[in-house]
């Protein structure tokens, strides 16, 4: 009975085109991403060769609409590709996310024809744009950011600092969240397009990260960064509600981050299954011990549940007027998938015994790589706040004195 379905229930849900896309992504990931994953982790170098293969295969900028030379791939399509790459190499999975979602998604959705064309050109030529939101004093409380964009004549002048910017120094296109100021008056939070190499855009120190070491996480400083007026991205609701519009676009990247966590967990699970069948103790394969069988059963259940939540959240984008995933479904999927990946990768290491703790096997890397996803992209706690607000249908402000009763 079980044999009638793919191991990951793909055949129940995917169209023939989607199955073909997944198969094609898996083949390329196995061919280019898996062989270099350990070296990428060890050298901490951005995997330009993998990026070149991703571009050639059409996996960078696949979400760009066809009229801009992309493929118009859906959030769901991108998630299928992301999982396959993350299953082999977490860093590669993240590159596919940012090459299709996040900054580029926001610009394509809200930009002028020129802004959209520029963003499309960058990702289609292999750039993984950087999204610059977090500041040293404004992490979870992102709206407390202090970076400003002051209108001066025909220019914006940006000043401030971001940190933990994925791709700092390798990303060419940046989407910078900043407080828009005109005549000293705060107008709202907007997104600004800026390019690596522009005077005043300064790449700061690199963080020595626990995992996902092949992508730099750096500070990015803006020291009188002068940008033309047409670099401002304004969501349709206007700049006053600019943050809300930008975060709405960011929900796609939350689904993407959840999918990287899923792919890493799937990779660790497969490694664990192979190991327990091969490794013998007490004269028999350790796969015969029921305690380990139940661990593997639980791992598979958690992985499949995460996949279903991610697919639901990704599919919701097709039904949202904004074209982005539903915020609550994206948050639910990311909370579940990120916590699942921490547990599943740790269990996979446990099933390997000492060999899992060695840097000669991939599971220790997977444990380190998976750890990020309950933090980056909105912590599991902040996303629970969002879900709580939705299920209770009440605002849940986190500032002191900001609490509102249900129904208020
Ligand atoms: C949203 C928060 C920063 C909390 O800030 P506030 O309490 O000041 O703001 P809110 O009133 O909750 O929200 C303001 C405004 O935005 C709308 N909003 C918020 N979240 C979403 C969303 N997910 N989708 C759509 N709209 C959203 C909200 O409804 C309000 O709209 P109105 O003004 O009422 O109309 C905080 O909750 C938060 O999300 N913190 C996490 C910050 C974060 O995610 N940072 C990610 C940085 S990038 C990154 O980490 C990359 C890693 S990766 O690999 O992806
Ligand atoms: C690998 C990695 C990549 C990243 N990439 C990017 C990027 O490309 N661009 C970008 O802009 N940012 C990026 N970030 C930053 C990320 O978005 C922030 O780390 C995250 O939003 C949390 O902010 P913080 O680290 O300042 O933690 P804090 O906000 O200081 O949180 C510390 C702890 O307090 C909890 N907490 C805070 N407020 C509340 C509350 N109201 N209720 C309950 N718990 C709360 C948090 O959940 C957390 O456990 C990245 C982070 C990592 C680790």
UniProtKB/TrEMBL annotation:
Keywords: FAD, Flavoprotein, Oxidoreductase. Its EC number is 1.3.8.1. It is an enzyme of class 1 (oxidoreductase). SUPFAM superfamilies: Acyl-CoA dehydrogenase C-terminal domain-like (SSF47203), Acyl-CoA dehydrogenase NM domain-like (SSF56645). Residues 15-126 form the Acyl-CoA dehydrogenase/oxidase N-terminal domain. Residues 241-390 form the Acyl-CoA dehydrogenase/oxidase C-terminal domain. InterPro entries: AcdA (IPR050032), Acyl-CoA_Oxase/DH_mid-dom (IPR006091), Acyl-CoA_Oxase/DH_mid-dom_sf (IPR046373), AcylCo_DH-like_C (IPR036250), AcylCo_DH/oxidase_C (IPR009075), AcylCoA_DH/ox_N (IPR013786), AcylCoA_DH/ox_N_sf (IPR037069), AcylCoA_DH/oxidase_NM_dom_sf (IPR009100). It comes from the Bacteria. GO terms for molecular function: short-chain fatty acyl-CoA dehydrogenase activity. Residues 130-224 form the Acyl-CoA oxidase/dehydrogenase middle domain. Its cofactor is FAD. Belongs to the acyl-CoA dehydrogenase family. PANTHER family: ACYL-COA DEHYDROGENASE (PTHR43884), ISOVALERYL-COA DEHYDROGENASE, MITOCHONDRIAL-RELATED (PTHR43884:SF12). This is Acyl-CoA dehydrogenase, short-chain specific. It comes from Roseobacter fucihabitans.
């Amino acid at each position: 009975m079980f044999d009638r379905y793919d191991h990951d229930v793909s055949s129940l849900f995917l169209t023939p085109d989607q199955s073909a896309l997944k198969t094609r992504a898996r083949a390329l990931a196995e061919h280019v991403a898996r062989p270099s994953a350990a070296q990428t982790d060890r050298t901490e170098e951005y995997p330009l060769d993998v990026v070149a293969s991703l571009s050639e295969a059409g996996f960078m900028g696949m979400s760009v609409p066809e009229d801009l030379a992309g493929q118009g791939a859906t959030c769901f399509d991108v998630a299928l590709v992301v999982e396959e790459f993350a299953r082999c190499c977490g860093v590669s999975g993240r590159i596919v996310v940012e090459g299709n979602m996040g900054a580029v998604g926001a610009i394509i959705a809200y930009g002028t024809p020129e802004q959209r064309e520029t963003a499309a050109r960058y990702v289609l030529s292999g750039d993984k744009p950087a999204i610059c939101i977090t500041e040293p004093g404004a992490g979870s409380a992102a709206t407390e950011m202090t970076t400003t964009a002051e209108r001066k004549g025909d220019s914006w002048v940006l000043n401030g600092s971001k940190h933990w910017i994925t791709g700092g120094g390798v990303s060419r296109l940046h989407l910078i969240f900043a407080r828009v100021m005109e005549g000293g008056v705060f107008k709202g939070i907007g997104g600004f397009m800026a390019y690596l190499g522009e005077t005043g855009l300064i790449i700061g120190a690199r963080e020595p990260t626990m995992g996902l070491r092949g992508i730099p996480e750096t500070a990015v400083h803006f020291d009188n960064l002068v940008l033309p007026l047409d670099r401002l991205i304004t969501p349709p609701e206007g700049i006053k509600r600019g943050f809300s519009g930008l975060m709405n676009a960011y929900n796609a990247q939350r689904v993407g981050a959840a999918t990287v966590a899923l792919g890493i967990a799937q990779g660790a699970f497969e490694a664990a299954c192979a190991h327990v069948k091969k490794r013998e103790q007490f004269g028999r394969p350790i796969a015969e011990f029921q305690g380990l069988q139940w661990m593997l059963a639980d791992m598979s259940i958690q992985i499949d549940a995460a996949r279903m939540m991610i697919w639901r959240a990704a599919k919701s984008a097709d039904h949202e007027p904004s074209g982005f995933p539903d915020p609550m479904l994206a948050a639910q999927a990311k909370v579940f998938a990120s916590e699942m990946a921490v547990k599943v990768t740790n269990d996979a290491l446990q099933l390997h015994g000492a060999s899992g703790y060695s840097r000669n096997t991939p599971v220790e890397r997977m444990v380190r790589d998976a750890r990020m996803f309950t933090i980056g992209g909105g912590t599991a706690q902040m996303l629970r706040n969002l879900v709580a607000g939705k299920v209770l249908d009440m605002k849940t402000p986190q500032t002191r004195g900001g609490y509102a009763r249900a129904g208020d």
